[in-house]
Write a structure and sequence with these properties.
Elements lengths: L6 E6 L7 E6 L2 E2 L5 E6 L2 E6 L8 E9 L2 E9 L9 E7 L6 E6 L11 E8 L6 E2 L8 E4 L7 E9 L8 E2 L3 E2 L14 E5 L4 E4 L13 E8 L5 E2 L9 E4 L7 E10 L2 E5 L6 E2 L11 E8 L4 E6 L11 E8 L6 E2 L9 E4 L8 E8 L5
Antiparallel strand pairs: 1-5, 2-3, 2-6, 4-5, 6-7, 8-9, 9-12, 10-11, 10-13, 13-14, 13-15, 16-17, 17-20, 18-19, 18-21, 21-22, 21-23, 24-25, 25-28, 26-27, 26-29
Amino acid sequence: VKAGEEIHVLIPFIGSPLPNVEWSKDGKKMHSKRFESNVKPELISFYIENSNRLDTGVYKIDVSNEFGSDSGNLYVTVVDRPSPPIGPVVYQNVEKDQIKIQWQVPDDDGGCDITGYIIEKSDYGSNDWIACSGYATKCEYTARSLTEGKLYVFRIRAENMIGVSDPLEGKHIEARSPYDPPGPPGQPQIEAFSPSSATINWTPPTDTGGRPITGYFIEKRELGSEWIRVNHYPSPNLNYIIPGLREGARYEFRVIACNEAGAGQPSRPSEPLTAGVQKFPPGPPEGLNPDRITRSTVTLSYRPPRNDGGAKIKGYIIQKKQKDKDEFEDINGYPHSDLIYTVVKLTENDEYSFRVCAVNEVGR
């Protein structure tokens, strides 16, 4: 059935008296203003008006009267034009008179095979679209006969036997000689640090300049000072250990991608870091015991965690969970400093589980 058409199926049956009929899809009873089913002698009708792709599926019919019951399945496929191709539009092999573009297949092929893609181009700032020559059967296309120095916008439509999708439109791109320097990498993230070093990672730039990334330069600076390059040769990796930090000083880091054209634009600086011993959330307290139990209270004792995470323990958060609950809940809003805690306002004969979390300046 094509999208927008009605789905009308007549199902013959034999039985008396007239049966009760229930329709379901994906285990749920049918409830839609567009759906209607009627029962007449020897005939059950199934009707959906103004069908769409979401109506595709298996519909189960259950019929019953006082003498018995039966069931069956109705398989419905609604076909439509495909959804737009998936972006982003990726530009590769940019040259002065041609550009290779790539994209991804649509999420929804409309219920039938994608037969190809229609590519159109427009001058940047204009809304006059011109069909590019040829026809793409794969998710890539090389636009030719371009004018050097001109900015272009490309859009792609998927096509199947039903029709043509809405377009996927890319960002503007300049037809120019190859080998542009790349854009900025992603903002560096700090993985780990010590008094004298830091380990950072980053993501590649979204704009490669039309050529593969060959490596990355890493730069550092103390806050308020100039940027200093850390490595003399581009690193091929997406992480780097930066040596030579001064304990107690605050640093920022940034990354510059390189390709055959040279170094590109620097990334955004990382969040500031103070060189020093890295601190972590503490480990779990040990030896949790219920020392005293009354009708409405439980007194808990515990020992400090073996690992304080490199920072002083501020206190402890005590949590409880009743037997029929799925989640633990905090009992105290602020860290409790002692190694003994009495939980109050419990319900007699209820079963409870308790746990304790240590807290330092990093968290728990």
